[in-house]
Design brief:
- It is built from 14 helices and 11 strands.
- The chain is an alpha/beta fold.
- The strands form 2 sheets. Strands 1, 2, 3, 4, 5 and 11 form a 6-stranded mixed β-sheet that branches. Strands 8-7-9-6-10 form a 5-stranded mixed β-sheet, with helices on both faces.
- Strand 7, helix 6 and strand 8 form a beta-alpha-beta unit.
- The longest helix has 14 residues.
- The protein starts with 14 loop residues before the first strand and ends with a helix.
Length: about 325
């Protein structure tokens, strides 16, 4: 197994969606006895957003005078308009071409942080490029270059995070995502599609990637390089200017510090992540987890790399990259204690 190439522009693969209640008071109370203010948080229910769940379960939001109301969303792309309109405050999900398109059209959202970051471990990764073992055994696919012209699964299609991660592997062979036929499939569906020949390969997240590799359906042809990230934290404009924006991020960053290194696999953290994602602690422990920056700082170079790939593929139709000062704000992370 080998790593995808680490792009020179990539610093580190679902946006953190939150509907703001306008800081309305709730029936709860902080440790100091003050009424908690509610922040409605939309999220894709995955372990990659562990800082959110850990901050909630350990009372870090409550310590900041905040109570969160978690709302499951299908994707970050769906959540961006809601955050922009003030119906939601924060978005935590995979970045996508749709997010950039929404920003280009003037929707009022800002990337304020990162979420899961790959550690580049080729033996145990949360995400793998899995190629049909039948094609590998027959010699039809001996390298990533042999995927040219073939059908490759990626959640979200050509404009999704999976397609971006796939592009990292293809670029090493001088290819782009336009050189393969990307099939929009959910992660749970890709192992079966590989087994029945509907697709030749897939950019698959664990546990589905792990299952496909272990049962012989597929062979790993690489993992995202260390530092790669396709997810992050996004604020709607209304929430970003509220007095809850910094305390909310501070609680997230506090939880991220609890998830550094092997501490992310502590019994307490595994129980919290499992309860939040509908799994047992043992099920969470059996699948490699992403890592998180201690301050969850946004990754402008990574965002630029994603935007470039989608512009070159045609998933984004505008001609010039967006000025990052217009949609990236690192001050919440830099001010987090």
């Amino acid at each position: 197994m080998k790593k995808f190439p680490l792009l020179a522009s990539a610093a580190t693969a679902s946006l953190l969606l939150a509907a703001c209640s306008g800081g309305s008071a709730d029936d709860g109370a902080s440790a100091g006895g003050e009424e908690l203010q509610t922040v409605d948080v939309g999220h894709v229910q995955l372990p990659i957003f562990a800082p959110l769940y850990v901050a909630d379960a350990k009372g870090y939001f409550a310590d900041e005078g905040i109570e969160i109301n978690l709302e499951t969303v299908k994707s970050g792309q769906d959540a961006v308009p809601l955050a922009s309109s003030g119906q939601l405050d924060v978005v935590a999900a995979g970045f996508s071409a749709g997010m950039f398109s929404a920003i280009e059209t003037g929707l009022d959202v800002t990337v304020v942080g990162s979420m899961g970051v790959s550690d580049g471990n080729t033996e145990s990764s949360p995400t793998d490029l899995v190629v049909s073992s039948a094609l590998v055994d027959s010699g039809e696919v001996a390298s990533v270059a042999d995927l040219a012209g073939r059908q490759v699964g990626a959640a979200g299609g050509p404009g999704g995070t999976g397609a971006y991660l796939l592009s990292l592997a293809l670029e090493e062979e001088g290819l782009t995502i336009n050189d393969v036929e990307i099939v929009n499939l959910g992660n749970p569906d890709m192992p079966t599609a590989i087994a029945n020949g509907s697709i030749d390969a897939g950019l698959i997240s664990a546990p589905f990637s792990t299952l496909a590799i272990e049962d012989g359906t597929g062979t790993s042809f690489g993992v995202p390089p260390e530092g790669t990230s396709g997810t992050g934290v996004l604020y709607g404009g209304e929430f970003a200017s509220s007095d809850l924006a910094q305390p909310f991020f501070g609680a997230l960053a506090r939880a991220a510090k609890d998830l550094q290194g092997e501490d992310r696999y502590s019994d307490e953290n595994l129980e919290i992540i499992g309860a939040a994602t509908g799994q047992t602690a043992d099920e969470v422990a059996a699948v490699p987890l992403y890592t998180w920056l201690p301050d969850l700082a946004p990754l402008p170079e990574q965002l630029a790399a994603m935007e470039r790939v989608w512009m070159e593929s045609g998933a984004l139709e505008y001609a010039e990259p967006l000025p990052q000062d217009d949609y990236v704000d690192a001050t919440f992370a830099s001010n987090a204690e």
